[in-house]
Amino acid sequence: MEYLSTRDKTLRLTAAQAIKMGLSRDGGLFTPVQLPTMGALEVEALRGMDYQGRAAYVMGMFLTEFTSEELETFARRAYGREKFDCDGVAPLRRVDETTWCLELWHGPTSAFKDMALQMLPQLLSASLEKTGEDKTACILVATSGDTGKAAMEGFADVRQTKILVFYPENGVSQIQKLQMVTQEGANVGVCAVRGNFDDAQNGVKRIFSDPAIREELAGRGYFLSSANSINFGRILPQVVYYISAYCDLLNAGAVRLGDRVNFCVPTGNFGNILAAYYAEKMGVPVGKLICASNRNDVLTDFIRTGVYDRNRPFHTTMSPSMDILISSNLERLLFDLSGGDDELVRRYMADLAETGRYEISEEMREKLQKRFWGGFCSEEETSATIGQLYRERGYLIDTHTAVAAKVLADYRRETGDGAPAVFASTASPYKFCDSVLTAIGEVPVADSVDRIAQLEAVTGVAAPKRLAALKGKARRFGGVADRERMEDVVLDFLR
Prior knowledge:
22 helices
């Protein structure tokens, strides 16, 4: 299968080339020339597999130059018990008669990013070998909280790679920050950015598109790649867990083959819900894709109006991984909704860069609203939802998951659609102890790491072992850079 750029569809690459590059030199995102499809026979076959088998099967439909043996090996390594704390890898938890929660945080960093970032390093290493690459890949990452740690955990000491993570100085939780600055590995680096996530993300994109930097690094034996969801190697493993969730619903007798299910996904960069959209296009019977935003509700407005406008206040919230006003993966959806019109996508992206907004055509808006529904959740509603689910169901969730749970309830109330629904849980509540403790009526203790033990003692819910082990761990990184000087950090890191 070939991959093309959303801004130049004449550019065609193999899967290995696309994964290696991460981002097209024209600034576009790589996407499959066409999506593979599944019929009833494929779904029935997947039902009988474990998660690792499903992952290998689904990825094999996209990565045709990789052997089934390679992908099976990668899946067993990525999703084994030494990495994930439950056999189901991405288990469904029943909340009520028609609602399930898809728990995506049972991996080594307690966030959904593990689902992709335990797989991507293996795909990238294999891609370097398949393309005969002799240079070292430098993975540049902008993170709003979870991607950075998950990427470093996945790439730590992986051969022929180095990884440098940028995060907004005051835009991640204390636990998220501690996870990053204590990361082990000889090939990792971390630097805070004075600004928000969009500043960090724009800085990374600027570095990628600078030919002078690429030339300088090539002379030093490096090339740039990405572990953000702009890399299709990040998106693909995420497609798997939506397909797997539908199979699990079938196996539990919750739905019958062909029954439609609604998925509600908390998202900022649009990658997680884009994966659900791809799963639907492949053949998963989806009723509605419900896009859940926090107070940074640019996606809600876009879905409801067809106008994307980032010219609005930026809010720092208790769900920081969603504090984003420039949703990069939306570009892939625009390309699909436009029928692969790369010229139109280029114009929209130019308008976004120049004016901070664009407006899609009426035809595209109708297609968008047929598949998606958008809603947002305030800070007060996020906290209230955490408290309500804990009191009424004994279910402890994090701040991002609460956004999804609340928006799903809003969707059902406003539309009357009571179809079976799954909302995605993207992080352990222990990554946001202060907000969760407050939401359930407790006063957090002073030290952020001690709050892990406090939440465990209060609720009786076991904390992930790796988070509990952060107490007393030595900090390795403390650098801070202005957003305009991120290039200098990269060049210094790769001396």
